[in-house]
Amino acid sequence: MEYCIVAGGPERYLPDLKAFHSDNAKWVGVDRGVFTILQNELEPHGAFGDFDSVSDHEWSLIKERVQTVNTYLPEKDETDLELALNWVLTQKPESIKIFGATGGRLDHFMGNVQLLMQPDLLESGIKSELIDVQNHLWIAKAGEHMVIEYDTRKYISFVPVTGSVENLTLTGFKYPLKNRNIFRGSTLCISNELIQSSGTFSFTKGILMVIRSSDGAS
Questions:
Q1: Beta-bridge partners for 139
Q2: Are both 2-133 and 138-213 of the same fold?
Q3: What pLDDT, in 10s, does the model give residues 171-194?
Q4: Which CATH class is domain 2-133?
Q5: Which pairs with CB-CB distance under 8 Å and at least 24 residues apart come from 46-51?
């Protein structure tokens, strides 16, 4: 089962949520993201948050339409998105897609990226992505990974998360690499492109953030 989490980030950064829906998808809302799911005529499987960003009318609709609503005080150790993600992990998902987690406040965005690096999530091997109208972002562990060309996300960047990433090799890319060590703070692997229908990247040690981007909103 794939879980799609919608947080409360600016709606102008959201892609078409219906394009990501399938019979295998369950939707989970975080704070105002619950109302966003309802607006897109999708069915929230669960709701998490302090709901301080919804109006009284929107809150009434959420309580009416969503069976499981988990409410929390604003003063807590975890963000609403972290609480939702922790619950999703207990459901043993095959994959996780997170929307509404980019744009707006930079502290929220950086915190949301950090969530993808939770030890439990990394060790699980579950592919988890932050997705907005222009970008897909995920975290990759050492090994070999395939990427497939598609029109709306032609730029691919590789950003070291750990202090170094060892023996990075890129094949099928405009700017190939062979067993290159790259270090946190380097911009060497920003804005690459595939030159064929698919390519691979591999490395032997470290953790990479992988970002696929388009030229502009699509």
A1: 209
A2: yes
A3: 999 999 999 999 999 999 999 999
A4: alpha beta
A5: 46/70, 46/84, 46/87, 48/72, 48/80, 48/81, 48/83, 48/84, 48/87, 49/8, 49/80, 49/83, 49/84, 50/74, 50/80
In the chain, where the domains are located: 2-133, 138-213
Query: What residues have CB less than 8 Å from 88, skipping those under 6 apart?
Result: 3, 5, 28, 96
Distance CA(145)–CA(85), nearest Å, equals 24
Look-up: residue for tokens 């969503």? 66
Nearest-angstrom CA–CA distance, 47 and 87: 11
Task: Give CATH for domain 138-213.
Answer: 3.40.50.10240
Q: Specify which residues 156 forms β-bridges with.
A: 192, 212
pLDDT given at position 152: 82
Q: Which of 105, 57, 56 is nearest to 81 (CA)?
A: 105
Which runs of consecutive H residues, i.e. helices, occur in the chain?
32-39, 56-65, 80-90, 106-115, 119-124
pLDDT in tens, 42-63: 999 999 998 888 888 888 888 8
Residue-wise pLDDT tens digits, 97-133: 999 999 888 999 999 999 999 998 999 989 999 999 9
Residue 50 neighbours by CB distance under 10 Å: 15
Question: How much is the average pLDDT of 205-215?
Answer: 95
